[in-house]
Amino acid sequence: MAIDPEELLPKKKTADIILGEDISVLSEFELEARIQSLEAEIARCREAISSRRASKSAADAFFKR
Known about the structure:
Layout: H1 5-8, H2 28-63
């Protein structure tokens, strides 16, 4: 059974972004991917905030605050 040399290399986790980590070792491609991941997470957070505000607004209207 032959072993693929790529299987021996450690796999990078692109989903695990640590804020403040050293980015000087990342390639241009990795930095672009990091930016895309962070922008997607920001959009997800903004949607969650909007949803929570809508829920709060509906509750306030129901209880007539």
